[in-house]
Write a structure and sequence with these properties.
Mean pLDDT: 90
Radius of gyration: 29 Å
Number of strands: 22
Largest sheet: 7 strands, antiparallel
Strand content: 15-25%
Distance between the termini: 87 Å
Number of helices: 27
Structural class: alpha/beta
Oligomer: single chain
Length: about 725
């Protein structure tokens, strides 16, 4: 028999950095939930197969979040907070949130397989608008809500946790859960999460697996190196100007290596560059950090060789010298990787395994003694497998260690036991998707996001040069910028991919940049409040039909007063996943040639805020930036003036005037002279309205972005006239 085929499996474990370091809050639950499923299950299966060798790639930002959950008892996420609340104490918007988002499990493999969970889904239905959710809330009893709280968390338990003697009876129980049941589920969940990193360390220390790393916050390194690299692989794409953040690329690598050493007590040997994104310029950066190997996609190899043959060229690592440095590089078999990630979940394990073995044996015959690299997501595929991947993983590991035709190896083993004999003299610049970087840069939203990164970079640079802040504060601000450079935020921009969480990813990205300015002591620029991602299927803002001149008296004087005003359709606003109160029932806006007019109609909910310090802040951007503020005290006949603010030389808000232009009665009506904003007819004007309680933003309108109007001229009515 010819030499066995060396099978180098790499399981990539990664989640975006959801945590807000300044507030200590995190909105999305995926680190916690994947810990009780994929991370725990992979460790358990590897423990069952002592002779199995492979590589687990753990992104440092994932390690940091797992540690944060484990060591900070106050750390929680929105979903965990809502899971803990007694059903009778849930507010209406919290019930709506739970009914909308607590079915975010795979319906076929994680919901419908449990009769109790499936019954709740059937009762809710598949709502297409907020009104349907409101109707569903009325159908759900307190017991239904508690069962849903339990099932959402329970459904994310992997096959290992489901066999826990405390959990298995609850799955069998199927419903009618008690508060004690719910507490038990959340307690076991925390135990499983806390065991993940020790499990990885135990496997590493025993020499059972290799743990590799990635740049700390999972940035696309070649984009950070510079737009010249991007143009190299995408010569015809529109880019957001020229920039180069090579020092950031170096820092992301070094910080990742240092954090790995702190966590595992040794230095990593290998790296999976984020999204397999490579270029020649990153090779010296890896070598400087002590990394000996990296991996990317076969599409990169195909474009790096004058002629490419999969059978001849793919199944071996290469020496890759660049300048005076060198690393070994693996190129993954895309087809085999995708079979595990996307195809085999639809098949019984025995059929999938037989097919996989046939592919491996064919490779063994065409590349005797070769090494096949199989690199894929190690956490997301398993929710699509009916059994969570248990049958396939156990079967695969058993075959690889027992079948003499194959030898499982880690990437480190592969290069140390058989050093690469072939040299790659050219490395194509690209990623594992289309061998370019088009998923993360080049689209309108992606380019806008990179423009914001550039602006924030400039602000940080100026702060360093000014020397007014201590190094620790500057480093903390830089850390927030590094977080914003992560690939995940850019993944969801434009139309390449979408999820129920698109708006939240956008909010998180801009939140990282906002934190930079907060740490620098600067005013957060208004443009960071404007979402980059746009919902394209609803018209949320309707522009005015004609000029209006309402009487400011805090009440609707007659029907026609605001009839032709523009409005924001609050019923259609979906916004981010942050819980927020709908303090306003309606919001109108309009103008004549002298003034912008705003009308705020309070909801019933707003009445509870009236005597508790709620105030209105209107942010305006014309030729100059202005802000007006007034208390939202309904029925206050004495309130007639608002305060007008402008940014000072340090970009901090400074009161500059008071203006007689507000009345708050049953509603609030405001007039803002265009003269105060230094805008003239035909020029654009943007505005957004914030409802504040102290320094806390209770709500904002529109929920995302700002409203843009054009200052009208004398022809506005004739141009926009309609019956």
């Amino acid at each position: 028999m010819s030499a066995p085929l060396r099978v180098a499996l790499l399981w990539h474990m990664h989640q975006p950095y959801y945590l807000d370091d300044l507030s200590g809050e995190t909105s999305l639950p995926w680190v916690r939930l994947h810990a009780t499923k994929a991370y725990a299950d992979m460790n358990a299966v590897l423990e069952k197969h002592p002779r199995m060798a492979c590589t687990i790639n753990v992104v440092p930002s994932l390690l940091a979040q797992l540690k944060a959950y484990e060591h900070n008892e106050r750390l929680s996420d929105t979903f965990l907070n809502l899971s803990r609340i007694f059903p009778e104490d849930l507010e209406p918007d919290e019930k709506s949130f739970i009914l909308r988002y607590f079915f975010m499990s795979n319906w076929d493999t994680m919901v419908r397989r449990h009769p109790g969970y499936a019954a709740l889904l059937q009762r809710r239905g598949v709502p297409s608008d907020p009104k349907a959710i409101d109707e569903a809330v009325r159908r759900f009893s307190r017991q239904d809500l508690r069962d849903l709280q339990v099932w959402f968390n329970l459904s994310w338990f992997g096959f290992t946790a489901q066999r826990d003697e405390r959990i298995a009876p609850l799955i069998e129980k199927s419903g009618s859960f008690t508060e004690a049941d719910k507490s038990l589920v959340l307690d076991v969940q925390a135990e499983v999460l806390a065991a993940v990193i020790p499990g990885w360390k135990r496997l590493l220390d025993a020499g059972r697996v290799e743990i590799s790393t990635s740049p700390f916050y999972h940035p696309i390194l070649p984009i950070l190196v510079g737009t010249d690299v991007v143009r190299r692989s995408m010569p015809y794409v529109t880019l957001p100007g020229d920039f180069s953040f090579r020092d950031d690329a170096r820092a992301q690598i070094r910080h990742g290596v240092d954090y790995y050493r702190e966590t595992f007590g040794r230095a990593p040997v290998g790296v999976w560059p984020s999204e397999g994104s490579v270029c020649p310029e990153v090779v010296p950066l890896f070598a400087e950090a002590g990394l000996k190997w990296m991996a990317t996609d076969e599409g990169i190899l195909a474009r790096s060789l004058p002629e490419f043959s999969r059978d001849r060229d793919l199944y071996r690592p290469y020496r890759l010298p660049v300048n005076d440095t060198e690393v070994a590089v693996f190129f993954r078999d895309r087809y085999l990787s995708d079979l595990i990630g996307f195809t085999y979940s639809k098949n019984p394990p025995e059929i999938a395994l037989a097919d996989f073995v046939r592919h491996l044996d064919r490779i063994r015959q065409v590349a005797p003694g070769g090494t096949v690299s199989i690199v894929l997501d190690g956490e997301n595929p398993w929710e699509y497998y009916a059994d969570g991947g248990e049958g396939f993983l156990n079967g695969l590991f058993k075959i690889l260690v027992e079948d003499e035709r194959f030898e499982p190896v880690s990437m480190r083993q592969a290069v140390e036991e058989q050093p690469p004999q072939h040299t790659l003299n050219k490395l194509h610049s690209g990623s594992w998707i289309n061998a370019n970087y088009g998923i993360w840069i080049g689209g309108p939203e992606e380019n806008q996001a990179w423009t914001l990164v550039q602006r924030t970079h400039n602000a940080l640079k100026m702060a360093r040069q000014a020397g007014r802040l201590d190094p620790a504060t500057l480093d903390a601000a830089e850390e927030q910028l590094f977080q914003a450079e992560g690939s995940d935020w850019f993944w969801w921009y434009d139309d390449d991919f979408n999820s129920e969480n698109d708006a939240e990813f956008d909010n998180l990205f801009r939140g990282k940049l906002k934190n930079v300015f907060r740490l620098l002591g600067d005013r957060v620029p208004a443009y960071l409040d404007e979402p980059i991602h746009r919902e394209r299927d609803s018209q949320l803002v309707v522009q005015p039909l004609s000029l209006i001149s309402p009487q400011l008296d805090g009440r609707v004087s007659h029907f026609y007063e605001w009839k032709d005003a523009g409005f924001i359709d609050l019923a259609k606003v979906r916004g981010s996943m942050h819980l927020s109160k709908n303090i306003l029932r309606k919001l109108y806006f309009g103008f004549d040639q002298q003034n912008l007019y705003l009308r705020l109609d309070p909801s019933d909910e707003c009445l509870a805020y009236g005597e508790n310090g709620l105030r209105v802040v209107v942010q305006l951007q014309g030729q100059v930036e202005r802000q007006l503020r007034f208390p939202f005290a309904l029925g206050n006949d004495e309130l007639r003036e608002y305060e007008l603010f402008a940014p000072d030389e340090q970009s901090r808000w400074e009161a500059i005037a008071r203006h007689d232009g507000v009345r708050v009665g049953e509603i609030a009506e405001v007039a803002v002279p265009f003269q105060l904003l230094e805008v003239t007819p035909g020029q654009p004007l943007w505005f957004a309205i914030y409802l504040m309680k102290g320094e806390v933003e209770e709500d904002r309108f529109p929920k995302n972005g700002r409203v843009m109007i054009y200052v009208p001229d004398e022809n506005y009515d004739s141009i926009n006239w309609s019956v």
